[in-house]
Amino acid sequence: MTGNAPTTDIAITQQDLAAAFRRFIDAEYVISDAETQRVYECDGLAAYCEMPMLTVLPENTEQVQQVLQLCHQHNVPVVARGAGTGLCAGATPNQYGVLLSMAKFSEILEIDSAARLARLQPGVRNLAISEAAAEYGLYYAPDPSSQIACSIGGNVSENAGGVHCLKYGLTVHNVVQVKLLTVEGEALTLGNEGLDGYGADLLALIHGSEGLLGIITEITVRLLPTPECAQVILAGFASVKAAGDAVGEVIARGIIPGGMEMMDSFAIEAAEAFAQAGYPVAAEALLLCELDGSVEEVAEYVDSVTAIFNELGATSIRVSQSEAERLLLWKGRKSAFPAVGRLSPDYYCMDGTIPRGQLAHVLTEINRMSTEYGLRVANVFHAGDGNLHPLILFDSSIDGEFEKTEEFGGRILELCVAVGGNITGEHGVGLEKLRQMPAQFNDAEISQFHALKFAFDPKGTLNPGKGIPTLKRCQEYRTLKQNADAVQGGHKHA
To answer: Which CATH class is domain 108-225?
Structure first.
């Protein structure tokens, strides 16, 4: 499936553009044949595929500048790509454009242990930051489930989170400076290494911008001291509502866990079969609650949270007694996606956020829709901040089943908006959620998004067709929604 609109005003042929690139990039890294480019046709959401006109892998900032300048001169679209682990089709190539891979920008340039900062190229893997900082007693807090593979540049582009974002925040809360190139190749520095910035906060703006505003070439992140102690409480519950109530009660009593994750019964069974972490497979829901800090703090918090879980009817409670056990308990949660993948030919991972108080209602509705569509759903989510990741299981070899799955996923996102949430928590919009943007934003707001995009990219050649729907598409959506609501209303009164 493709969502890229054709571009008709390109002023150069593929052959001529490739020849121009090879004047300053090693010919081996200017890729034009279909077979070699096949690995770049999609990101982690493989349902959306497109072949690029050309793929280039520059080695330094000067080469990226020259790529951008040539493409801008000849109206050629440019789509930046990191590790390709994204889940919103944000790095899907444009068939008329250049796929700009930043994979060779993989150096950790500096770790300043005194200032607790790390200066990185965008292709550095998320986990590699903590591995390099460990010798200084430091680590990088945001930890997406794909942290072993995903790149920090992609993390900024999607404003990634992870299981510890409740206490330590998303990527935007842990980055102090970003260097990027504009569509014309001009170098910009956003933010600084001081405690305060100046002027408009463009650093926050670039987070979650999905390659629409510029190409990131360097990132400086904040490092944190490794906690003296960390323990995980694994608690089983007889219902999703009971687990949701427990999440709210922990936070209401002023305890902010390092991480607070929930899984439903289907996800528990899948994760346990895969990771063998000792999860309570008879439970309808489980919570993973990590508490970190000094030894004394953690002991006090463990006692408090254990008491809360018992008060609210936990059917089982287990507290990690070693670092190995703590990591094993997290392995089950972080393996949930591949674990579910063993149960079905395909799965579709959604990403929406809701107020914590709506957890039980939303999961009940998802289960109802699961029956309606005849598609199984495993629910895993960052319970502390209400970021849901329903995994819809389907078989793409069955005619029409992906379209049905896509419709089901769209209704989940619209439900999130209806209860006061958002259509994305950390995966981004890309191509995947363009249909749902009008459910959250009105025409005036979407016009403002277009104005912002135009300020950075007047020709619209950076990652075109992603992130922001056209107003025509919004109007079409609203007409369809009104008609659907009218039909539904008619059914109710029949």
So the answer is: alpha beta
